[in-house]
Write a structure and sequence with these properties.
By secondary structure, the protein is of the alpha/beta class. It has two domains: 43 residues, no CATH class; 281 residues, 4-Layer Sandwich (Metallo-beta-lactamase, Chain A), CATH 3.60.15. The protein is built from ten helices and 16 strands. Helix 1 crosses helix 2. The longest helix has 15 residues. It is globular, with a radius of gyration of 20 Å. The N terminus is likely disordered. Bound molecules: zinc ion. The site of zinc ion (ZN) has 5 residues, from loops.
């Protein structure tokens, strides 16, 4: 232990990279040093903070990256009457401060419904982060006066590098439309300026993100749907699985969904996303969807059954909490 203290943090990262080559076998001497260093410093590589819906912050100690950006959560009545809405800047500022979001390099947008993109412009302006997204996401950014230098319209099946991260954009399908969001395939074709009507946040195409780091691989799948074979090229250590719709899915849909996602990706850990009531503010206790829409306890039960059967770890992360993996 004494000698290992001489190994610097930089060495540790380098050795971790080396260990990836040999598949992180625990008998590897270098990996053992890294593990000891990690324990001594209480540092285990990646801090992941969940802000509800599908908003996830990753932080490797150097660079931060957000997937989706939704902190302001208008109520269901506001959504039904498509109320004109602005970002809750006081809440966002508080969350940026409390979660030390001061090294945010990028915000990747999975689709442009309000519960994924609403706060991307304000957050980008406050942090200097670059917004990556569809043409619709670019128009949300433009509407918020985000400089073009902080906007990247991404392309299908293309990888982007941010710090030590590599993000691949995978075309996906939104969950089946409901009476409330029956705009799939529609795009935002002009800058969307706040206050903006919530229904003006059209879907604009949906995407999954394959997130690779020197240490681990993650698949982020915001929507409860699949394209057959789309996950074939990928394996992920950790799967963030959009589950809004799982409770109501019939047995065949559920079977195919798991077959096309978890079974292909073979994760060691599944963390569900989009399970919480995103019409409920982030400054009150988190809760599941309203029972009329979804029985969240059934969602968790179905997911637990799948994970139990396939020996996959399963963790539910509460909004505004962090885990370090
Ligand atoms: Zn959506």
């Amino acid at each position: 232990m004494e000698n290992n203290r001489a190994v610097s943090y930089f060495d540790c990262i380098v050795l971790n990279n080396f260990c990836n080559i040999c598949n992180n076998e625990f008998q590897c001497h270098f990996f053992r040093i890294c593990a000891i260093m990690g324990n001594e410093k209480g540092y285990k590589y990646m801090k992941i903070t969940y802000f509800g819906t599908t908003t996830l912050l990753f932080d490797d100690g150097k660079d931060q990256i957000l997937f989706d950006c939704h902190f302001t959560r208008p109520s269901l009545p506001d959504y039904i009457r498509s109320k004109e809405t602005v970002s809750d800047t006081a809440l966002i500022n508080e969350l940026l401060r409390k979660h030390h979001i001061d090294r945010l390099r990028a915000i990747f947008i999975s689709h442009t419904h309000h519960d994924h993109v609403l706060d991307a412009p304000y957050t980008a302006l406050q942090t200097g982060a670059v917004i990556y997204g569809s043409s619709s996401a670019m128009n949300v950014a433009r509407g918020g006066n985000v400089p073009e230098s902080q906007m990247v319209q991404f392309a299908d099946n293309t990888s982007y590098t941010v710090g030590n991260y590599r993000i691949t954009v995978i075309p996906s399908l939104h969950s089946k439309p409901t009476i409330l969001n029956n705009d799939l395939g529609e795009t935002i074709d002009a800058p969307l300026v706040q206050p903006a009507k919530l229904r003006d946040y059209k879907e604009g195409g949906s995407y999954d993100f394959y997130f690779e780091t020197p240490e681990k691989t993650y698949m982020i799948r915001p929507s409860f749907n699949y394209i057959k074979g789309q996950m074939d090229p990928y394996k992920a250590d950790i799967l963030f699985l959009g589950v809004a719709g799982l409770a109501k899915a019939d047995a065949e849909t559920e079977r195919t969904f798991f077959a096309e996602t978890a079974a292909k990706l073979q994760p060691k850990l599944i963390i569900p996303v989009h399970w919480d009531n995103f019409f409920s503010r982030l400054d009150v206790p988190a809760r599941g969807m309203v029972p009329l829409v979804e029985h969240t306890e059934v969602v968790f039960f179905k997911l637990m059954q799948y994970c139990e059967e396939h020996q996959i770890d399963f963790v539910v992360q509460i909004p505004r909490t962090s885990i370090t993996l």
